[in-house]
Design brief:
163 residues; alpha/beta; 2 domains; 2 helices
Length: 163
């Protein structure tokens, strides 16, 4: 019984600290999609920690979680221990089993995982890499780069004239 009470108090305290951290930067805690509510529209400058999931709007720094990260814009690092990272726009590095950049990779962006997918640009290292529109470089067992030098390659692949 004491463990359960302690766990509930820790969750409530974490949510309260997370709500104030959004305005100040620093460390922000997320627990699920849209929880706490302060995470949804946050522009975090610091570290977002997902226990188990961190899903916020913008992160300048790092988003670290046990299960998953889902952010609109990330400038820095997304790391997930068990499942996946999703970002609409990314500049930095993603590290998880599954990494998805849904719109654009800005600057040198790296994806390291079993399955990596990037809409435009990006450098991918994994078993299956899917550069849907001209990934810069891919290294893995299966490399799909629809508008790259070769649309499909084993072991490695390069993009065509990357802007």
């Amino acid at each position: 019984m004491e463990r359960k009470t302690f766990f509930i108090l820790a969750m409530v305290l974490g949510m309260a600290l997370g709500a104030t951290a959004v305005e100040q930067g620093g460390i922000h805690f997320g627990f699920w999609y849209r929880a706490p509510g302060s995470v949804v529209d946050s522009d975090l400058k610091g570290v977002g920690i997902g226990l188990p999931i961190y899903a916020g709007k913008k992160v300048d720094g790092a988003a670290l979680s046990i299960i998953a990260n889902s952010n609109e814009t990330v400038n820095g690092f997304q790391g997930s221990w068990l499942a996946y990272n999703i970002a609409d726009t990314m500049a930095g590095c993603q590290l998880a089993f599954v990494n998805l950049i849904q719109k654009i990779a800005e600057g040198p962006t790296f994806q390291i995982g079993f399955y990596n997918q990037c809409e435009t640009r990006g450098i991918q290292i994994g078993l299956v890499n899917n550069g849907r529109d001209n990934a810069i470089f891919q290294w893995g067992l299966v490399n799909i780069n629809r508008h790259g030098a070769m649309p499909f390659m084993i072991l490695f692949n390069f993009g065509k004239k990357v802007q």
